[in-house]
Amino acid sequence: MALKPNSTDTRTRSSIQIFIVVGLCCFFYILGAWQRSGFGKGDSIALEMTKHSADCSIVPTLNFETHHAGEVGNVDESEKPKSFEPCHPRYVDYTPCQDQSRAMTFPRDNMIYRERHCPREEEKLHCLVPAPNGYVTPFPWPKSRDYVPYANAPYKALTIEKAIQNWIQYEGNVFRFPGGGTQFPQGADKYIDQLAKVIPITNGMVRTALDTGCGVASWGAYLWSRNVIAMSFAPRDSHEAQVQFALERGVPAVIGVLGTIKMPYPSRAFDMAHCSRCLIPWGANDGMYMKEVDRVLRPGGYWVLSGPPINWRNNYRAWQRPKKELEEEQKKIEEVAKLLCWEKKHEKGEIAVWQKRVNDEACSGRQHNSQANFCKAEEANDVWYKKMDACLTPYPDVSNPEEVAGGKLKPFPERLYAVPPRVASGSVPGVSVETYQGDNEKWKKHVGAYKKINRLIDSGRYRNILDMNAGLGGFAAALDSPKLWVMNVMPTIAEKDTLGVIFERGLIGIYHDWCEAFSTYPRTYDLIHAHGLFSLYKDKCNLEDILLEMDRILRPEGAVIFRDEVDVLIKVKKITAGMRWDTKMVDHEDGPLVPEKILVAVKRYWVVGANSTSVQ
């Protein structure tokens, strides 16, 4: 049965305005949002400046007119901007670093071919990736958890392949997600209830989770209502569009795989890690994948494994696998867990739960174990394109047996603004408690200004948000809301690695080098924030490539907020003039004499075959 619009549906035809104040005059930047349930042309945001008799004190210090000599001096205004053409329709779901044709040229051993393999410079596309015909703005959360417009990801294979497991169902113009999974066909909620009997999911101590081999990410989708945020990942493989479906649902996810390269997360990041029949050979390669999970698991954190080989004696017939093979598989997992000094807390049905010790005091015996090869402590966060090793990540030192290695965290949401242990201990050079607290106040002020520029930020219109240069996570913390989530990116060339601090705040993020494509599908994010990013990458790679990548991963009629030096933003503005974006420069909230400016942009709506920006 197709989902039909109704009068109370927030996506039903409506007009939403973003108020932008120009200097001392009251002008409005109107986003005419013509939203239709599961069909239509999306938000159809018309960029229109019109006088209005509203309260001119909304943003009294913002001024689109800049007041610095360098603004025009470095740009030849008479030169016509370069115009970027649409890519061929076959690139509608193009993922540059996980391209299927390129992947098949790499070895299949240890999933190497499913890892990141980015195009060489001469192979890069210099065009705009189109949206598919009929593309519409996704449903607002929480409806998006259960429904995705068919036109946005028109792939029916999983509705057949996973029919009895309740992953996904096709109903006319939408896909419906009943919340089932291979290990929880009765629904993720009931499955999470089972886990909550062992793991303290409800008291705020388990906030960040990692879902390896996530499918359509129903586990993460249903954890959200319990104030747990999951980072879900799966490869781009035969389960076409599984990560794309997750993102269309409004669930945090990236394309990824456990292969030969370390996961792009810092050590001690997650309160819980999870595998539900994820097909990862946990006992293989001397337990290398379990050791990598141990690296990113916080002391005291939990690892959940459900499905084969757990309780193989009772399930081998249903799994149609030899008893001896399953027995050996579980034996290896148990041996590695013992080496890691994990404590088994639960095994019932097809679910097993282990807990990582809070420190190394209870594991002193492994120092003399010939199989306990320890990694270098200083390399625990050195992960970008670094080979995964079958070594044990050492705990930080403690002064007594009860102390939590690396520091004990507050429950969430108190955790969001409490001083993170890595800051309190001085583990991040140049970041003191005072620096951290000052950064929080600064970002509260900045985000307050953003909300005056763009009134949609708090409306639920923007669910998936990307911060391309996240710093200490102040932007995401100031935005914190059940309506949205932020992917905090730590550029690999950043002066300070603060991604561990971001996770200690109960937020999620990932390492990435913006000279390459991001590990996601086109049209992933509703809102992108880029603070100081183009100054950071000014001499590192082509700014045009970064902007084209932003266009690829931004939804039609999505918004971008750039915050940078005025000279840099003028260059950015010139490039975007040929990208079917509409932009406006805004003064810093402290006034026109501040050299840092804000550039706001909206990507126009257009789809495959559209030669103009007009919506038909």
Automatic annotation (TrEMBL):
GO molecular function: methyltransferase activity
Protein location: Endomembrane system; Golgi apparatus membrane; Membrane
Enzyme Commission code(s) on record: 2.1.1.-
Keywords assigned: Glycoprotein, Golgi apparatus, Membrane, Methyltransferase, Signal-anchor, Transferase, Transmembrane, Transmembrane helix
Class of enzymatic activity (EC top level): transferase
Gene Ontology terms: cellular component: endosome; Golgi membrane; trans-Golgi network
Transmembrane segments annotated in the record for this chain: 15-34
GO biological process: methylation
Matching Pfam families: Methyltransf_29 (PF03141)
Name under which the protein is recorded: Methyltransferase
